[in-house]
Amino acid sequence: MNRAFSRKKDKTWMHTPEALSKHYIPYNAKFLGSTEVEQPKGTEVVRDAVRKLKFARHIKKSEGQKIPKVELQISIYGVKILEPKTKAEEITLTIGQAFDLAYRKFLESGGKDVETRKQIAGLQKRIQDLETENMELKNKVQDLESQLRITQVSTSPAGSVTPKSPSTDIFDMIPFSPISHPASMPARNGTQPPPIPSRSTEIKRDLFGAEPFDPFNCGAGDFPPDIQSKLDEMQEGFKMGLTLEGTVFCLDPLDSRC
């Protein structure tokens, strides 16, 4: 067995083990300061450190500074150095009083402040979620519109022209065209116009055996050249918008041809 350990075991201690394990032993001392050492233990190391601190104390004393007094609290958990002038007890009491007042205020309000803050936090989170959802829906709508445009462009044949409605005159009537097809005429009032009867090659006669009058079959083309040229000029004038006012016609040449 180690002799040093045996001597310490037989030695009578100043304090009981309970005082060092459950409490601490206080001592009042003067704090010279602290300094760094090259090794963590050794008598010479401690002597050099104390010598440096005493030299620093003489310098501070010559400058008029006093050595602070501290309290050493020694226990099995370590050594604490406390300055008694820090008023630690007053600080602890002030903190305890502040917590006590805060708890009383909470009890008086019935916890309404906490509940209100929780509701506000929940509403703020809900608003943020709705804004995010709204932005996602907008992006989806834009994507669908883009896909619809691409589909319309791909399905429409190349070089196709959108059919335009025929132009009308000032009386909202479609101008007459001898080559217009009956299917191209638009419906009026939601109904299709009656079909134009086809001309039969046979000449139909009435009850008296006479041929019915046909303004389109009056022997056109059998007129003299001068009359035919006048008729062509009048037809071109009618196409250009020419109107007849106060004109007297003589239909004798036409009567002889019809």
TrEMBL record:
Pfam families found in the cross-reference section: PID (PF00640)
Keywords linked to the UniProt accession: Coiled coil
Domain PID intervals: 27-88
InterPro entries: Adapter_Engulfment-Domain (IPR051133), PH-like_dom_sf (IPR011993), PTB/PI_dom (IPR006020)
Gene3D superfamilies according to UniProt: Pleckstrin-homology domain (PH domain)/Phosphotyrosine-binding domain (PTB)
Domain of life: Eukaryota
Sequence segments annotated as region (Disordered): 182-201
Coiled-coil parts of chain: 113-154
PANTHER family from the UniProt entry: PHOSPHOTYROSINE INTERACTION DOMAIN-CONTAINING FAMILY MEMBER, PTB DOMAIN-CONTAINING ENGULFMENT ADAPTER PROTEIN 1
Protein name per Swiss-Prot or TrEMBL: PTB domain-containing engulfment adapter protein 1 isoform X3
Species in which this protein is naturally found: Neomonachus schauinslandi (Hawaiian monk seal)
The gene coding this protein: GULP1
